[in-house]
C-alpha cells in the first residue's frame, strides 16, 4: 500500500512538503496544489517555488493541473516536462464555486462529452503519464456510474478518488458504497482519498479494500503530522518533532521575501487543522490565530507545546 500526501492549496505548499518529508516518515508521493494554465511563457514566482527542487527538496513530486482546455493543459505539460516532470495529475475534484462555475475541477464531471474529447486529446501526448484526482460527480454519487466507462477508455496512470460529490463539498460522509463500485470497475490503479484522520481510519480502508494501490491523506496529516507514523505502527505522537517542524516552516516562509503578516497567515492556515491535537490549549490557540507579530505567535506556540 502506498501513501500519498494530498494537495491542499495554501497549506501543503512547497515548504510544508519539504520539511514534512525531512522530519517524519515520508510519503511515497506528493502533489502540488493545482496550477492553472496561463499565457505567460514560463512559470510565475509562486509556481516556480511549487515545482523547483530547490524549494521542494528531494521528494517524489507530481504537479497538478486544473483545466478543461486541452491546449492550455498540454502547453503547461510541455513547460513541466522542460522542468523535468514525467508525471502530471489532472484535477477533476475541486468543488469550489468559482472553479466549478467555469466547468473545471469537479464541475468538468457534468460534461462527459467534453471531458471525453479533452481526455482523448491529452492522452495523445506520449511524453508524460497522466493520473486523475476526481470526485464522484456534481450532484449525485450515481453520476459516477456513467463516468466509469469513459475513464476506462484511457491509460490513466493512477485514479485517485475522493468519494464525495461537488455538492457534498466536505460535508456528508464519504460514499464507500460508490467507492466500492470504483474498486471493482475502474481499470487504473486506484487510490482512496477522504477523511483519513486516525490510524484506525486508514486500517479500516486497507482491510475493506485489500487490493487498493494506496491511500492519499490531506487534512489528516496537517492535523497530525505524525499520522502516517501511527498508521505504520508507531505508538506515540512526537510533539517535539512537530514543534521543530513548525519552527523550520516559519523560518522557511520568512526567507522568501513575504511580510510578517503573510508568513503568519500561512502558519495560521495550518492551525485550522492542527488545533485538534491540542484540545486543552484553546486559549493559546486563540493567541496564535490572533497573532499579528512573530513574538505573540511564538508565545502561543510555546504555551501549547509546554502542556504536552
Ligand atoms: C484548503 C484545501 C485546499 C485544497 N486544495 C486542493 C488542490 O489544490 N488540488 C486538489 O486536487 N485538491 C485540493 N483539496 C482537496 C484535498 O486534496 C482532498 O481531496 C480533500 O481534502 C479530501 O481529503 P482529506 O479528507 O484527506 O483532506 C483541497 C482541500 C482543502 C481543504
UniProtKB/TrEMBL annotation:
Keyword Transmembrane: no
CDD domains: DUS_like_FMN
Residue ranges that the Swiss-Prot or TrEMBL entry lists as coiled coil: none
Any Pfam family the entry gives: Dus
Top-level class of the enzyme under EC nomenclature: oxidoreductase
Database matches in SUPFAM superfamilies: FMN-linked oxidoreductases
InterPro entries reported for this sequence: Aldolase_TIM, DUS-like_FMN-bd, DUS_fam, tRNA_hU_synthase_CS
Swiss-Prot/TrEMBL cofactor(s): FMN
Enzyme Commission number, as recorded: 1.3.1.-
Residues in DUS-like FMN-binding domain copies: 6-290
Keywords, alphabetical: Flavoprotein, FMN, NADP, Oxidoreductase, tRNA processing
Function: Catalyzes the synthesis of 5,6-dihydrouridine (D), a modified base found in the D-loop of most tRNAs, via the reduction of the C5-C6 double bond in target uridines.
PANTHER family attached to this UniProt entry: TRNA-DIHYDROURIDINE(47) SYNTHASE [NAD(P)(+)]-LIKE
Family stated for the protein in its record: Belongs to the dus family.
Official protein name in the record: tRNA-dihydrouridine synthase
Amino acid at each position: 500500500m502506498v501513501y500519498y500526501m494530498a494537495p491542499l492549496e495554501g497549506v501543503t505548499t512547497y515548504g510544508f512538503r519539504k520539511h514534512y518529508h525531512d522530519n517524519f516518515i515520508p510519503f511515497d508521493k506528493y502533489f502540488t496544489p493545482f496550477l492553472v494554465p496561463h499565457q505567460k511563457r514560463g512559470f510565475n514566482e509562486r509556481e516556480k517555488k511549487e515545482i523547483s527542487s530547490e524549494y521542494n527538496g528531494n521528494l517524489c513530486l507530481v504537479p497538478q493541473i486544473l483545466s478543461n482546455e486541452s491546449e492550455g493543459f498540454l502547453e503547461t505539460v510541455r513547460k513541466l516536462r522542460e522542468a523535468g516532470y514525467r508525471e502530471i495529475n489532472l484535477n477533476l475534484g475541486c468543488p469550489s464555486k468559482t472553479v466549478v462555475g467555469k466547468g473545471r475541477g469537479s464541475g468538468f464531471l457534468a460534461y462527459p462529452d467534453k471531458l471525453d474529447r479533452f481526455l482523448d486529446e491529452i492522452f495523445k501526448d506520449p511524453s508524460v503519464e497522466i493520473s486523475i484526482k476526481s470526485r464522484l460527480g456534481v450532484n449525485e454519487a450515481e453520476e459516477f456510474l456513467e463516468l466509469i466507462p469513459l475513464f476506462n477508455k484511457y491509460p490513466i496512470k493512477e485514479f485517485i478518488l475522493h468519494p464525495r460529490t461537488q455538492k457534498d463539498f466536505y460535508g456528508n460522509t464519504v460514499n464507500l458504497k460508490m467507492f466500492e463500485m470504483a474498486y471493482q470497475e475502474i481499470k487504473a490503479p486506484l487510490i482512496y482519498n477522504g477523511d483519513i484522520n486516525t490510524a484506525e481510519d486508514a486500517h479500516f480502508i486497507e482491510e475493506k479494500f485489500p487490493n487498493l494501490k494506496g491511500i492519499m491523506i490531506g487534512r489528516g496529516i496537517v492535523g497530525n503530522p505524525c499520522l502516517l507514523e501511527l498508521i505504520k505502527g508507531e505508538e506515540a505522537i512526537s510533539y517535539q518533532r512537530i514543534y521543530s517542524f513548525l519552527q523550520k516552516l516559519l523560518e522557511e516562509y520568512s526567507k522568501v521575501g513575504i511580510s510578517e503578516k503573510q508568513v503568519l497567515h500561512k502558519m495560521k492556515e495550518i492551525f485550522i487543522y492542527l488545533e485538534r491535537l491540542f484540545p486543552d490549549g484553546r486559549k493559546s490557540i486563540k493567541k496564535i490565530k490572533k497573532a499579528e507579530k512573530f513574538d505573540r505567535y511564538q508565545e502561543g506556540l510555546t504555551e501549547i507545546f509546554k502542556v504536552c
